User: What shape does this take?
Amino acid sequence: MAHGRIFIDAERCKGCELCRTACPPHVISLAPQRNSIGYYPVMLNDPDNKCTGCALCAVVCPEACIIVYRDVAVPA
Amino acid sequence: MAHGRIFIDAERCKGCELCRTACPPHVISLAPQRNSIGYYPVMLNDPDNKCTGCALCAVVCPEACIIVYRDVAVPA
Amino acid sequence: MSKQLLKGNVALAEAAIRAGCEAYFGYPITPQTELLEHMARRMIELNRVFLQAESEVAAINMVYGAAVAGTKVMTSSSSPGISLMQEGFSYIAGSNVPVVVIDVMRGGPGLGNIQPSQSDYNQITKSAGHGDFHPIVLAPATVQEAIDLTVLAFDLAETYRTLVIVAADGAIGQMMEPAELPPMRPKREKRPFWALTGAAGRPKNVITSLYLGADNLEALNNQIQDKLALIQGHEVRYDCYRMEDADSVLVAFGTAARVAQTAVDHLRQEGFPVGLLRPITLWPFPERPLRELAQQVDTLLVVEMNAGQMFHDVKEVVGDQAEVYFTGRTGGAIPTPDEIERVVHGLYNYYLDPDYSPVGVLA
Amino acid sequence: MSKQLLKGNVALAEAAIRAGCEAYFGYPITPQTELLEHMARRMIELNRVFLQAESEVAAINMVYGAAVAGTKVMTSSSSPGISLMQEGFSYIAGSNVPVVVIDVMRGGPGLGNIQPSQSDYNQITKSAGHGDFHPIVLAPATVQEAIDLTVLAFDLAETYRTLVIVAADGAIGQMMEPAELPPMRPKREKRPFWALTGAAGRPKNVITSLYLGADNLEALNNQIQDKLALIQGHEVRYDCYRMEDADSVLVAFGTAARVAQTAVDHLRQEGFPVGLLRPITLWPFPERPLRELAQQVDTLLVVEMNAGQMFHDVKEVVGDQAEVYFTGRTGGAIPTPDEIERVVHGLYNYYLDPDYSPVGVLA
Amino acid sequence: MISEKVVYERPVALSVNRTHYCPGCTHGTAHRLVAETIDELNIRERTILVASVGCSVFAYDYFDVDACEAPHGRAPAMATGIKRVSPDNIVFTYQGDGDLASIGIGEAIHAASRGENITIIFINNAVYGMTGGQMAPTSLIGQKTTSSPLGRDPKLSGTPLHIAELMAGLPGVAYSVRRSLHDARHVIQAKKAIRLAFEAQMQHLGFSLVELLSTCPTNWGVAPGEACDWVREEMIPVYPLGDFKVAEPLRARSQRGGQ
Amino acid sequence: MISEKVVYERPVALSVNRTHYCPGCTHGTAHRLVAETIDELNIRERTILVASVGCSVFAYDYFDVDACEAPHGRAPAMATGIKRVSPDNIVFTYQGDGDLASIGIGEAIHAASRGENITIIFINNAVYGMTGGQMAPTSLIGQKTTSSPLGRDPKLSGTPLHIAELMAGLPGVAYSVRRSLHDARHVIQAKKAIRLAFEAQMQHLGFSLVELLSTCPTNWGVAPGEACDWVREEMIPVYPLGDFKVAEPLRARSQRGGQ
Amino acid sequence: MSETSVVIAGFGGQGVLFAGQLLAYAGMENGRFVTWIPSYGPEMRGGTAHCTVIISDRPIGAPTVTRPDIAIVLNQPSFDKYEPLVKPGGLLVVNSSLVTASSLRDDLELALVPADALAEQFGTRQLLNVAALGAMLAKRPLVALTAVDQALRNHLPASKAHLLAANLTVLEKGYAHCVQLPLAQ
Amino acid sequence: MSETSVVIAGFGGQGVLFAGQLLAYAGMENGRFVTWIPSYGPEMRGGTAHCTVIISDRPIGAPTVTRPDIAIVLNQPSFDKYEPLVKPGGLLVVNSSLVTASSLRDDLELALVPADALAEQFGTRQLLNVAALGAMLAKRPLVALTAVDQALRNHLPASKAHLLAANLTVLEKGYAHCVQLPLAQ
Ligand SMILES: Cc1ncc(C[n+]2csc(CCOP(=O)(O)OP(=O)(O)O)c2C)c(N)n1
Ligand SMILES: Cc1ncc(C[n+]2csc(CCOP(=O)(O)OP(=O)(O)O)c2C)c(N)n1
Ligand code: SF4
Ligand code: SF4
Ligand code: SF4
Ligand code: SF4
Ligand code: SF4
Ligand code: SF4
Ligand SMILES: [Mg+2]
Ligand SMILES: [Mg+2]
Assistant: This one.
C-alpha cells in the first residue's frame, strides 16, 4: 500500500471540509483553533499512517492549500 | 376554366414585376408610362380573357396593390 | 402609519408600490439590490408585474414597453447600469412617456466600487443619452425623503409624461432610518388615452421617437423644450438651513448635504455664519434661489461626493456674484463634517489673507 | 500629397489609418457608415484588424480589449450608438488606456433622424458614462480638419492614455470637400510597457477599473483628475475669426461654426463688428480665452445645432462679464447664416431698445 | 348569369400609407401576410406592433394597429414589457436580421427562453438593408457586402446564424419555423406559418417566431426577380425551410417542412 | 531506502494571494484547475485572462498571468479585441452564469459564432453569487433565490438555459462541454476538459467553452459538503454532464460524456 | 456671385450624385472652394435622391442650403419640390423629357433640356445627368466646360470607362441645347 | 453627548448586523434619531462584517464615521482594524473570548467581555452579539436596557422566537459582566 502525507497551509484553509469528505482513509479532521482569518482549518490526523498520498484531498481543495507527498522507494 | 380580372392600383405599384413572373397565363405587362412616383407600373394586358382570377399575382405583390375578381355563376 | 426603521432600498421599493407602481423590471446591482429583492417579493404578492431582466439594457426597454402600454412603471439600478440605460432613456425622452428610475449611485469610473457616490450627477442631469433632454432628477437626503420623493416621482412622471430619476446613493440605499410609509394608493383602473391598448373603437395610437426630416424632429424638440421650460417654472425644489445672516453658504445634495448640515451646526457653534442650500431637484436646478442667494452672500462652497459636477451648475448660476468653491470626495468616500469645516475655516482665512490657498478646493 | 475631393467619413477613416490605427471595431449606423465601410476595405487590404461587431456595446468592449493589449484602436458611431458605449467609456476611463472614438452626430432624442446634429455635446463632454471623467473631445469644422484632428486624436490618446472623441456631425461625415491626407505612418513595432502581452520575463500586468475600498478608488480618481488638469493646461485648442474690434462674438463649433463664419462675413459687410470664437477642443473647453474675451466684448451669441448645450459652458466661464445668448436649431436642422444674422440684428436692437426681445434666443 | 366576386383585396389591417420599400422588396409581402392574418383572426383591435430599427422602421405607419418603435435590437424587451402589463393584447415584433440576430440576439434569446407569449416576425434578408448593405450575421459565406467587400470570410466573421433553429432549442419556444417569400407557393406557406404563430400566442403557448427569407434587391444589386432567384438558389440551401419547433397543440395544423 | 516525492502542489500560475471566496466555494477549484492547465501547457507567459463581474471579479489577483477586467457580460468582446490584435497570446475569459448567460449572452454567442479562437471557463452556480443570490438564467425550476422568493416559476421566468448545448450548435465552436466540480472524480474530469479547451485554442480550432457546475454554499444557504450534494442531486439531472461539441482533432483525447 | 449653390435632384438611378460630384471636381480643378453633400439614409429608398454642390471664392459655410441658386430637376417630384425653392433670380434646369409642368414664377430663369432624349440620341439613356449638367453650364458658367470634361476623364469609374466618349458628347449636346435655344418663359 | 457612533464588527455569522439593528430600534423607541448602515458587497465575503449605528438628539449627518465613539469588536481582525480608530475618550468593547491582544492606547475606555463564553453559558454560542451589546450598554447607557429588551421582543425573527428568553438573559449577563467588573486598564 502506498504511503504518503499532506501539508496543509492552515492560514489559507477555510475549513470547508471538502478534503475531509474526499479522503478515503478519513485522516483529515478539523483543527480546534481558528486561524488568523477566523476559520477552523483542517489538519492531517493520521496516527496510523493511513494516508496513501492519493491526492484526492488536494484535487478537491478550492484553496489549493494542500501539498501531497508520497513515499517512493529509492534504490539504495 | 375560371375567368377573372385584376385591378392594379397603379399609383402604389412599383413595377417590380413579381406579379408578372407569377402570372400563369402571362397577362400582366409593364405600362409604358411612369406613375407620379416615377415607377413604371404594371397593367393587365389580357385581350384574350386568359386571366383566371387565380390571385397568384396578388399573393406575391409586396405593395398589396392588386385586387382580384373572379367570375361566378349566379343562378338566374 | 407610524415610523418604522426602514432600509433605504426597501423604503424606495415600498414607496413605489404604494405610489401605484404597476410594473417593475430590473437587474441586480449593488448597492441597490435589496430594492429589486423587495420588489420580487411584494409585487408578486400584490399580483403586479415583477420581472428580473437579463440586463439593464433589456430592463429599460421592458420599462419603455410597459410605459407605452400606459402603466406606472419603474426600474432601479446603480451607476454602471445607468450608463447602459442611456439609449433607452433617450428613446423614452423622445416618446414623451412617463417612467420612474431609481439610481443608487456608487463609485466610478468603470467597475469602481460599491461605496456611496454622487458621480452620476452629470450623466443623469445633463442628458439622458443623446439628444436634448433632461429628466427630472430628485435627490433625497434621508430615508423619509427617499419615500416622499419616490411618490412624487410617479406623480411628476405622469403629469409631464417624462422620465424622472430618483438619485440616491449607496448610503441612502443601505442605511436604515426611522421613516413613515404613505398609505397604499388604490389601483388605477384606466390606462391613459395615449397608451397602446389596441386600436378598439378609436384610431390607432403610435408611440415613436423617429421623426424623419429635420422639421418634424425639430417640432418634437420644440415641444420637449416647452415641456422642460414648464417643469423649470413649476418644479424646482430645494431646502435651506440656517440661512439667517449667513455670509457663506454650503451647497450640497443627498448624503453630502447631511454631512454639510452637521458641519453647519458645528461652524455655527464656532461662530461662523454659515448656511446650507440643498437642491432637492437636481434638474430643474434651483437657479433663481441660488442666484438670489449669491447676491447676498460672499462665498458658496459646493460639497459633493464626486470631483465637482454640480459645482459647475452653481458656478454658472452664480456668475460673478459670489465666490464659488468646491470640496468633495471621490471613489465612494463620504466627506466628514471635519473636512468641510477645515475647508470653511480655510475660506475665512482666505479673506483675511488672499495668498492663503485653501486645501482641497477647486476655484 | 495634394488635395483630393474627399467625403468626410472616408477622410476620417483614412486619416485614422495613416495615423497608425492598428485595429477597428464598429457597428453600422447612419450617418457614419461609409467610415466603417472604408475601414472594412482598407484595414483588410493593409493586413490590420477590422471587425464588424455585433453591437456598439460589443464594439466598444472589443476596442477596450485591443487597447489593453496596447494597440492603437478606434471605433466610430453616431448618437444612439454613442449612448450604448457609455459604460464602456467609463471602464476605459477607469483603466487609463488610449482609445479613439469618432462620433458622427445625428438628430435626437431617441431614434430621431439621421440629419446632422450636435446634441451629443453633453453626453460626450460632461461624462463618459458614470464616474468623474472627461474624454478629450475634438470638433472638426471641415473635412481637412477632420483629418488633422483624427491624427491628433491618436497622438493625444497615447500621450495621456485617455479616451479621445472626435465629434463630427452628419454634415461633416457626408460632405465632400477638397482636403489633403497625411502620409502613412510606419507601423509601430512595440507595444507599450503597460500592455497585456503575456507576462514573459516581467511581473504580470493587470488592467482593471475595480478598486475596492474608497481610499483606493479615490487614489485612482485623484490620478485621473491630475491627468485631466494636465490636459486642461496643455491641450486647449480654438480658433478666432475677425476678432478685430469685435463687440459681439459668436461662439460655435463644427458645422455650426462654418455657418457662423458666413454670418460673420455678412454682418461685417453690414458694418456690425462681429467675430467668431470656435472651440476646437470641446473638452478641455477654452475657458481662459473665452473669459478674457468676455472682458472685452459686450455680447456672446452661442450658436449650436442643439437646444443649447455648450451654451452653459460659455455662460459658466463668462459669468457676469458679458451677456450670453443662444440660438440654435434642433432635430437635424442646420442653422442658416440668415437666421444667425437676424438674431444678431435683434441683439443690436436690444441695446437700443431694452424691451426688444430677440427671437429664438435663450437668455 | 355571371357575376364577379372579389377573391383578393388589400387587408384592412394594412393602413392606406404607401410604403417606402424599394421595388420588389419582400418586406412589403411580409407586411401584407401579417395584415391578412390579423384580419382573419379578427384581432386588429387588440394587436400591438413593436417595430424595430431597419428598413421596416416605419412598419407602424403601414399597419393599422397600435404600435411603437423599439431601439435597435430591443423589440423583444419592449414587447415583454407590453405583454406583461397587457396580457390580453396580442403583441408582435417585426425585426430584421441585423436587429434581431446581431445587436438584439440577447433580448431575443431571453424573451424566447422565458417563453414570453409574444410573436416575432423575423425578416432574414442576409444584409443590413437600411444602412446600405453591410454584412449581417445571416450573410452567406462569400457574400459581398459593403462591410465584407471581398465576401464574407468565415475565418474573420464566422458563419451564418440560424435563428429559427437556435430558438427551437429553447424550451420556452412554442413555434419556430423558417419560410420564404420568393414565390407564390412559398408566400402561401409563409402566410400559414404566420397565422400559426399568432394562434400560438392566442392559445398562450409561449414564444413564437417565423423566420422569413426575404429579398433586398437594392443591396444585393439585382433586379427583384433575380433577387427571388437568389433566395431560392443561394439562401434556401443554407437556410433550409422547415418547422424546427411546433408545440403539440399546433402540430396537427402545421405542414411538415414547409417546402 | 524510502524517500518522498511531491505528488501535488500548488500550481505556479496561481498567484500567492488568498482568495476572497467563501469556504467551500468551487470557484477556487476552477481557478486551480485552470492554473494547473496553464502550468502543464507551459503558457503562463503568453496567457491573458479576461476577468468578468461576479464573485470571480478578482480572478486577476489570483492568476499569475497578464489580466484585465471586463464590464459585466462583455468579457467575450474584450477577449475578441485582445485575440484579434494578439493572435499569438492565449486568451481566456472566466465568467459566471449571470455574467455570461444573462447580460452577456449576446457577446458570448457572437464570439462563438464567429469562431473566435478563445477559451471560456463558464461557472454555472445557478445563482448570482456576488450580488447576494438572485436568480440566474441557470437557476433551477423551483429554486428559491432572493429574487425568486417563492422559487423560480417557469411561467414567469422561463426555464434554465443550457449554455454548453446552446454553444455546441454554433459552427464556430470547436469544443463545448459540461463538467462538474462537486467531487474528486468530477474535478479530475473537469481538469481534462479545461486542458482540451486550451489545446483547442493552441491548435487554432476556434471557440472553446467548458461549463463547470459549481457550488455557492453561501447563497444556497447550505454547508459546503451539502452544496456538493446539491450539485449532484439537483443540478446534474438538469444539466447533464457531457461533450456537446468536440472538434475532430480533439476527439481522440476527449472522454465521452465525462460522467 | 462669389458663392453659388446648386441642387441636383431626381429619381435614384438618374445619376444625380455623380453629376454633383463632377461639378465639384470641376470647381476644385478650377481652384475654387467646393462642397458636395448628398441626401442620405432611408429617404433615398423609394425613389428620390438629391445632392447639393456649393462653389465659392471663399471658405464655405453650411454645405446645405434651403434656397439654392440653381436647381437641376430631373423628374416631376423634384420639379415640384425645388421649383418654389430656387432663389429669386436663380436658375431652374428642367429635364423636359420627364417634366411636363411649367413654372409660374417670373423671377426665375428656366432652362428646359430634353435630357433623356439627348442622352438616348447621343449616348445612352443613363447619361441624362450629364446632359442636364451641360445645360446648366450653358446658362451659368460656374466652371469651365473643359473642367467638367477633365473631371469626367479623371473620375469616371473604371467600370464606365467605355462610356467616356459618350459622356463627353452628351455633356456638350446638353450645353449646346441651352446655348442655342431661346429661353422658355 | 448629543450624537454617538457605534461600530460593531466581527466575523460574518457573529450577528453584528442584527446587534446593530437592535441598538437602532432601541434608540428609535427611546425617541432619538438613529441611523444604521452595514458593510455590504464582496467585502462581506471571506469573513468580516461590520455596521455603524448612530444615535443622536438631532438629525444625523453621514451614517458612516471614520472614527467611532464606540467600537464593539468581536474578533481579532476587527480589533486590529478598529482599536486605533476609536475616538480618544471613546469606548472599545472587546470579545475577550476570541481576542487576546490588548490595547496600548491610554485614551480609551476598554471593556472586556467574554462574549462567546457568556453566550454559551447562558444561552447558545450564537448570542455572543447580544452579550457584547449588553456589555457596551453597561459602559455607555446610550439607550435603556429595557428598550433593547423591547426591541428584541419586537424584532427577533420568527424563526428565532424560541431564543427570546435566552437572548434577554445573555443581554443582561453581558451588561452585568461589565457593570461589575473593574475596568481593564
Ligand atoms: C443603436 C443603433 N445602432 C445602429 C443603428 C443603425 N441601424 C439602423 S438599421 C440597422 C440595420 C438594419 O438591418 P436589418 O435589421 O437587417 O433590417 P433591414 O434593413 O435589412 O430590413 C442599423 C445598424 C441604429 N439605428 N441604432
Ligand atoms: C452593468 C452591471 N450590472 C450589474 C452589475 C452587478 N453585478 C455584479 S456581479 C453580478 C452577477 C454575478 O453573477 P454570476 O455572473 O453568476 O457570478 P457569480 O457571482 O455567481 O460567480 C451582478 C449582477 C454590474 N457590476 N454591472
Ligand atoms: S492524500 Fe489521500 S489519503 Fe492522504 S490525506 Fe489526502 S485524500 Fe487522504
Ligand atoms: S478543502 Fe482545502 S480549504 Fe477546504 S478544508 Fe480542506 S484544506 Fe481547507
Ligand atoms: S389573377 Fe392569376 S391569371 Fe389573373 S392576372 Fe393574376 S396571376 Fe394572372
Ligand atoms: S407585384 Fe405589385 S408592385 Fe410589383 S409590379 Fe406587380 S402590382 Fe406592381
Ligand atoms: S434596402 Fe433592401 S430591405 Fe430595404 S427596402 Fe430596399 S430592398 Fe427592402
Ligand atoms: S457567494 Fe457563492 S459564488 Fe460567491 S464566493 Fe461565496 S460561495 Fe462562491
Ligand atoms: Mg436585414
Ligand atoms: Mg453565478
Residues D 27-29, 56, 80-81, 84; E 53-56, 72, 96-99, 123, 125, 127-131, 136 surround thiamine diphosphate (ligand 1) (CB under 6 Å). The domain at 239-352 of chain D is CATH 3.40.50.920 (Rossmann fold).
